[in-house]
Amino acid sequence: MNNAQDLSYPEIREAVQKLCAQFPGAYWQSMDRDRSYPTEFVNALTQSGFLSVLIPEHYGGSGLGLAAAAAVLEEIHRSGGNGGACHAQMYTMGTLLRHGSVEQKEHFLPKIASGELRLQAFGVTEPTSGTDTTRITTFARREGDHYVVSGQKIWTSRAEHSDLLVLLVRTQRRDEAARPSKGLSVLLVDMRDVLGNGLTIRPIRTMLNHGTTELFFDEMRVPAGSLIGEEGEGFKYILDGMNAERVLIASECIGDGRFFIDRAAAYAGERSVFDRPIGLNQGIQFPIARSYIELEAAAGMVDKAAALFDEGKSCGSEANMAKLLASEASWKAADVCLQTHGGFGFAEEYDIERKFRETRLYQVAPISTNLILSHVATHVLGLPKSF
Ligand SMILES: Cc1cc2nc3c(=O)[nH]c(=O)nc-3n(C[C@H](O)[C@H](O)[C@H](O)COP(=O)(O)OP(=O)(O)OC[C@H]3O[C@@H](n4cnc5c(N)ncnc54)[C@H](O)[C@@H]3O)c2cc1C
Questions:
Q1: pTM summary value
Q2: Ordered structural domains, the chain, with CATH
Q3: Does the beta carbon of 366 sit less than 6 angstroms from any atom of ligand 1?
Q4: According to a count of CB atoms within 10 Å of the terminal CB, is the N or C end of the chain lower?
Q5: Nearest-CA residue for atom 2 of ligand 1
Q6: Which are the contacts of 138, defined by CB distance < 8 A and separation ≥ 6?
Q7: pLDDT tens per residue across span 245-289
């Protein structure tokens, strides 16, 4: 199995591995059991500067690219941990960096880099729109120096543990906009000002510990200065961020896959049944080997997508393909690892069942496999659009 030296950013990887060693399986098991937010882990990651790798040095970050951020998240997941508590800061960062005003960046970025403010919530999905983002109905109407927001979001993860929320709203109704993708805007909401005063957060208990919630906006007033970029152009900004998100999530899947394969190979070598290590049997070896091959192939696509992103080139298809391949490879590795462990795979203390539940998410969120297939079919292969 690869070690950190064979991969990009070996120093970052080694440092992240050291940090993660302070948060072993028992830590994540207790978070999972109680559905708690891993505050100590997020604080340690923030203090060590790993969460602000994408923030320019001028604002207190390291000014590195997406490939470096991907290395951080991959190593967290490979260690048996989970970046879901704090990865949103990385993928929403592009929206603020590329489209935020100088004042917004000066105001927020140094505080995000230092950990004084958390930017961990990203509100796009709504109960009735599903994947069809242009059909969101949460509406922000302009009233003097404010926007007044009404509507609802679902699956807004980490909202209870974040100060800031990147919120996609309509500022023009879909049927009045020039195109369905127009008339959408992005607001950077300081939730500390509106919680209980227009904003209600309701947690949703899920299969994995993800701190996800529903948000209700009831005439929530936010300053007009919360608008990012131009009014009506928000869909474009969010799409930019989504490519980064797909690459970063794909790298978490690669980390998960490496975790499962490391664990499966180690256990297959140790566990003796019928007087021989189970790993002597090709029925055990081959699925692990196949899973490793598939994971390495997926990792190659993730690297390619990250490199294109960092070169400022178009990477929508590669980011989508990377996410599909990596999420399927990690799920396959999870299944192989569970099977290799037999009954012990189901015991909480082995971490396999937790990681198994966690890695399943990525075939649904942040975008489901079918939607990626549809993107490739219509945008890459030129097949007719079905919707
Ligand atoms: C734990 C968790 C955390 C999340 N965190 C966030 C977050 O922080 N912020 C946020 O905005 N969202 C978040 N999401 C939402 C997530 O991005 C969506 O669940 C995901 O995009 C799928 O949307 P949906 O659930 O509405 O599925 P739907 O759009 O209702 O789709 C349901 C199924 O139908 C399939 N489908 C739909 N249309 C078609 C079609 N035309 N052809 C073929 N198949 C189709 C889909 O692939 C999917 O499998 C989170 C979700 C979960 C579960």
A1: 0.97
A2: 4-114 (1.10.540.10), 120-233 (2.40.110.10), 236-380 (1.20.140.10)
A3: yes
A4: C
A5: 155
A6: 123, 126, 149, 150, 151, 152, 153, 167, 168, 169, 170, 217
A7: 999 999 999 999 999 999 999 999 999 999 999 999 999 999 999
